[in-house]
Every structure is written in C-alpha cells, then in structure tokens.
Amino acid sequence: MSRIEWSSAWSVGDDLLDHEHRGLIALINRLADAEALAASGSKVWLDAISELVLYAETHFRHEEERMGQIGFPGLEAHRAGHMRFRKQLSLLAADAEGKGPAALPDLYTFLTAWLKAHVLEEDQRYAPYLGAKTG
Fold first, then answer.
1. CA-based Rg of the chain, rounded to a whole angstrom?
2. Helix/strand/coil for 57
3. Phi, psi torsion values for 44, nearest 5 degrees
4. Is residue 12 within 8 Å of residue 21, measured between CB atoms?
5. CA-CA distances (angstroms) from residue 98 to 52, 53, 103, 104, 105?
6. First vs last C-alpha separation in the chain
7. Sign of the C-alpha dihedral computed for residues 122, 85, 61 and 79 taken in this order
8. How many CB atoms lie within 10 A of CB 19?
9. How confident is the model at residue 129 (pLDDT cuts 50, 70, 90)?
C-alpha cells in the first residue's frame, strides 16, 4: 500500500488542526505497516485501528469547535460528514476484526480516499475563514 505524504497543500492554516491532520496521516500509514506485520501473526493492526478511531474523535471535536469559533457557515454539513465517516469506519473496523488482516487493504483504501477528499477539499472550505479571523 502506498503511504500518504504531508505537503503544504494539506494545511488549513491552523497549527493544531494541521498537527492533527499529520497525526491522522501517520495513523493511516501505520495501517500499511500493520498489514505487513499481520503476516507474521502480529495483532498490531487492531491497536492501530483503535487508536485511529480515538484520534479521529478528538480531532473532529477540535475541528468542529474551531469552525464554531470562526463562524464557519458550513459547520453542520461538515459535522454530518464526520458522522458519515464515523459510521463507515465503525463498519470497516468491525469487518476487519471479523475477517482479520485480509480486510486491511479495503480499510486502508477507504481511509486514504476519505482523508484526501476530506482534508484537501472539505477542510479547505473553512481555511479562508480561519485567515479572516486570525489575519
């Protein structure tokens, strides 16, 4: 699986949110590593999924709070997107627990596609509001 690399295109202009986006990238990349380790019988992939779920929850809370602070008009739609992600991730995580490491490629594919679309498109919609409030 190809790894995601951070670039300035991912930045929304908020140090905390950018740091957390880097964290999400690292955790998703960890799943790529976990797939290789799973071949040796390691269960590290289960820990990686659990950590990703918890980290995403914290990030979503921070992001939604920040969007509220800056008066971003798309907050509710963005929040709904986070909810859809939670549901899909929950289903895929349960599938991975049931199927084992064989489910990791589908999970990784979903996560990388979601992260790219979410941060590079959805999150970029609130970036100008951050600049207006902080600039």
1. 16
2. helix
3. -60, -25
4. yes
5. 18, 17, 9, 11, 14
6. 39
7. positive
8. 11
9. very high
